[in-house]
Amino acid sequence: MAAIFVIWYGSQNFIYSNGGAKMGRKSKRTKKKKAGTSSGDFKYAVFFLLPNFLGLFIFTLIPMVFSLIMSLYDWPLTGTPEFIGGDNFVKLFTSDPLFMKVLKNTLVYVGLYVALNVVIAMALAVWITSLKRFNEFFRSVFFLPMMIGIVSSTMIFKWILSDNGVINTFISKLGIEGPNWFGSTATAMAAVVIVSVWQGFGYNMVIFISGLLGVPDSVKEAARIDGANPAQTFFRVILPCMSPTIFFAVVMTVISSFQVFDQTFVSTMGGPNNETNTLVLHLYNNAFKYQRLGYASAIAWVLFLAILIVTGVLMRLQKRWVTYEN
């Protein structure tokens, strides 16, 4: 899904940046080409793209089709599969006591994570680009958590947020009793979001820095001449110019956040009381803990459709606030 969006987004930017209307006009240039040039370029393109297409076909498309077939069966990890049609999907929405809860948990996580990730990444990007010195140093420092594996990051935060960890020790010195971050139903999801944001905001920060540096100085100077203060310049001039970059970051972050697994698996195993149980963790438990591969495949397809629907809605809404340069 992410790959499809990247290809579409790149083509859109190419079309708009080169003037979409111009592409429909007939060129007045002569169209004489050397014989064999076009076919030769095509052969080279096929040669270089073939490994990627083979990987996509073997490791993505074939497993997707097989997963769809499995979702129509009662398919145990060991034993003989039995065809049951759409019963797995019906069971998800009618008799699975956990499905609606994990779906809600996933949506809550997506909302919190995407909002915090984008806001923090944008704030740091604005601050770093405003620095006269050491901006490259701070860019590297804040991107560093991306280089640490999510499992390692989660283990670090399990120690930091433990009862005797750094955070609770500091809070206790203020006379406040710190919560059981990963063990309380009130704070477990917040703790998972904190881990995820700390580990993941660096990617969007770098994207936003690139977008900020791409805003023409002439546009910002024109806003200052018109009497706009720094806040008005940022919200009314810079952000609209960056809207394609922000849209790309939001969509990619949404797609990745729907697939959250490592953080919840390592930190809470979906607890306490399933408050951090998400769709992918529910899928994993059904596939490998309860050995119901067909049912797990049905969950996977519901997850795929959820991502597809949300991404489609964002694509439609972009017409209202995303401005492409003509």
Q: Can you put this structure into words, describing what you see?
A:
- With 326 residues, the protein is mostly helical.
- It contains 13 helices and 2 strands, in the order H-H-E-E-H-H-H-H-H-H-H-H-H-H-H.
- Strands 1-2 form a two-stranded antiparallel ribbon.
- It is globular.
- Residues 3-8 and 13-35 have low confidence and may be disordered.
Which helices and strands appear, and what pairs or packs with what?
Elements: H1 2-17, H2 37-70, E1 73-74, E2 82-83, H3 87-94, H4 99-130, H5 135-143, H6 150-160, H7 166-173, H8 188-213, H9 217-225, H10 230-258, H11 262-267, H12 279-289, H13 293-321
Helix pairs in contact: 1-10, 2-13, 4-5, 4-8, 4-10, 6-8, 8-10, 9-10, 10-13, 12-13
Query: SSE order, as H and E?
Result: HHEEHHHHHHHHHHH
Q: In what range is the share of β-strand residues?
A: under 5%
Terminal Cα separation, in Å?
Answer: 28 Å
Level-2 CATH architecture of the domain at 96-321: Orthogonal Bundle
CATH domain class of the domain at 96-321? Mainly Alpha
What structural class do helix, strand and pairing data support? mainly alpha
Q: What's the main sheet like?
A: 2 strands, antiparallel
E-strand count? 2
- Mean pLDDT across all amino acids: 85
Q: Count of DSSP helices?
A: 13
Form type = globular
Q: What strand order characterises the main sheet?
A: 1-2
- The name of the CATH topology of the domain at 96-321 is MetI-like fold
Radius of gyration: 24 Å
Portion of residues in helices? 55-70%
CATH 4th-level superfamily of the domain at 96-321:
MetI-like
Instruction: Catalogue the unreliable spans.
Output: 3-8, 13-35
